[in-house]
D-lactate dehydrogenase (cytochrome)
Amino acid sequence: MTAPLKNTSVSPVVHDLIAALGSKVSTEPELLDSRAHDRSYHSWEQPLAVVQATSTHDVSQALRICHQHHTPVVPRGSGTGLEGGSNTTAGSICLDVSAMNRILNVAADDLYANVEAGVMKSELNDALKEHHLQFAAGPGVDASVGGMAATSASGTTAVHYGTLKENVLALTVVLADGSIIRTGSTTKKSSSGYDLTHLFVGSEGTLGVITEVTLTLHPIPEAARMGVWSLPSLQQAVDLVVKALRSSLRVTRVELLDRVTVDALARYTGYSAPVSETLMVEFVGGPSEVESQYARFAELAEQYDAAEHASTTDPGEAGRLWQARHDALPAALALIPGSAPLTTDVCVPISKLPECILATKEDLNSTGLVAPIVGHVGDGNFHLAILLPPGDAEAESKAHQLNARLLDRALAVGGTCTGEHGVGIGKVGAMAKEHESALETMRSIKASLDPRGILNAGKVLALGGS
Amino acid sequence: MTAPLKNTSVSPVVHDLIAALGSKVSTEPELLDSRAHDRSYHSWEQPLAVVQATSTHDVSQALRICHQHHTPVVPRGSGTGLEGGSNTTAGSICLDVSAMNRILNVAADDLYANVEAGVMKSELNDALKEHHLQFAAGPGVDASVGGMAATSASGTTAVHYGTLKENVLALTVVLADGSIIRTGSTTKKSSSGYDLTHLFVGSEGTLGVITEVTLTLHPIPEAARMGVWSLPSLQQAVDLVVKALRSSLRVTRVELLDRVTVDALARYTGYSAPVSETLMVEFVGGPSEVESQYARFAELAEQYDAAEHASTTDPGEAGRLWQARHDALPAALALIPGSAPLTTDVCVPISKLPECILATKEDLNSTGLVAPIVGHVGDGNFHLAILLPPGDAEAESKAHQLNARLLDRALAVGGTCTGEHGVGIGKVGAMAKEHESALETMRSIKASLDPRGILNAGKVLALGGS
């Protein structure tokens, strides 16, 4: 036992963190900057220190100390968020769990895996291949499972496999005071006690820090057929998807790319589809079922004047076609060299999607801004990538106003301010508007679990007045 | 405006309830008895009064008054519970929402319906037929949607469609003090704020009273094929199901009936299947897919020495075959005339199912009790109907001990004390054991939402010491 060195240049909380966690605590300016923000345009300030935890015990120690010092803690996974959920504030500690990246258990017959929060989706899926299983939910971009769970993230596969909400069975969570709890069960279902798992999923680190996640797994499908369809109008595209979802068709993915996006792709990658509203659709299953499902979709598609541009069962070719969807953002940004995106994320009941998108396009046109639109149309979720030319403060202001009007428009038709990106900093006001009647209940729960308000302060909930 | 009549024979809280809600409040002894318990063997005492609410406003008024008087409130739907969750205690008020049975909105294209809590599953499904839609989750027995949501109920379809957890989008909830909140969203997904919906789903009326439920709907399948298969052993039955679930097969239902159940059915209904471990399995979808799915299942089944006893796509014939599953309980009870069942409800990771059931059968044999077993095998959930001969206190004591050992056995392999029946009175101790580390968190949340502890006191959580 050696007494910890007295380091007078650091604050008392950092001193105590170093005493407990040694070299896992860093105050190196470059590291502080790199861990201070996510991929969004939201503002941030340098934290006091970064704790690079390698175990639940580390997280527990860090929180116990920060709790004693009433010091704000900002949990962080892969930093791939889009609403500033892991952006740090001055005087805070960044609690980085990205080094907690062990796959603890793959229960193949029970279709679950228990992994540490820092494991990346791609790492998990690599490890699952030998079991012919996959983790099928989550965003297209690679991200840590802890961050995905904390954000209640999803992506193109949600229409079939659900979001993180439907794919997390159990969690290990460290509470604000450092105590460690286990929520949920590794069984496929349970009616035992309060569903704490789903309280922490989507709470963005404001109620506790997720350190382990037990995820539902799905078989890797034997076969898939994907197709690219051009439609004469947005209304027809959505009507076709509604018709498919109301039939016995099991659509695995169905993505909308508006004509502006398709045009941007053509300029950026040489993508050659007709410049029109476009649906990319996929069916998975056994080889014969995939064909019959796709054939039935094609029959429906004809009723809505859709024209097939491409179709394939070849995984390589399908990957190339899907790449266009993944290139949508870089292609959009290339329309205005040097621009940054303000990405919107409303989700509405699918029947309201055409009116919501068309009114937004009209609104957009009146602003002079450029914003290609892509949508997880089967879920009613769509994104504008509003392009912000470098140094154009007026465009930025206009973009924020456009987004504010879009949020109001979505809420007015029973929509939500965020389908999958989370609240973070960016949607605090919209969330409060959306959940006006339930806001006090959320605040009570926050106060009961984090009475000192140290966990990701200022995110999700604006405490004391909305 | 007339001043309320002073009724000196009733307690102050009942007086105030009558003043506010008039004839919706009853103290008629026969009604009190009929509303004092569910279908379980658990004890109950007569409440002070029954409030028969017909609106969320009624529920709000009743709770506001009970909150003022610190009077316990026991919410009640259809009273079909199996763990005493709606059993009343002396001095409590029964808050009966079964008359709140309006279907408020069917959003067919958006695949949801918003209904009052007292709507029965059968009523909802009758109304959905014209839309070619169904509410596909929930138990086999008819029950109110509010009660199903409060219990996080499920049944034979959970393996495909999920439980109530996966099928509730949004709720209207009245809190302990009478305030009304709306949780969730009618969108298919949302990352906006804390997931209060899933906190109330499964909380069994201890955190708030559910008055409206927004449910996910599914298309009525075009076709279905069901089959009945006999297997030489339980291990082979479970191995076959695991194999099917790990393939691209989409099993809609897969139910296990043990040989004791099949024997009981033969005696009770003349059901003619071979007396063996039996699987009833169903696939739904388009006609050709149903055939290809079933054929692939049959191929797998042969690998596990399964023999097909029956198979049909005819809805009437399928209904008759499924009836055997629904007759399992009455057939079991007929084995010992006049007996009542103690129904168990553990759920384990599916790979642990054979060892858990076999050890339980061995244990059962050592007790001399009779207990046919049925199981939602795809979920790892199984039920013993332990037969309690009339007036046999020793058998009842043995049954409780057997269930206690079963609960320990399930928890030891990572199982849960209740897959679908809820905690109620019967599983309070087992729930505390299962969620030991998270119990304080559940208690904090209960205390923050119901500080006077009036909501379904004594259910789910034993407050102040486990």
Chain A touches chain B through 97 residues (CB under 8 Å). Chain A has four domains: 12-96, 103-219, 223-329, 337-412. The longest helix of chain A spans residues 393-412. Chain A has a mean pLDDT of 95.
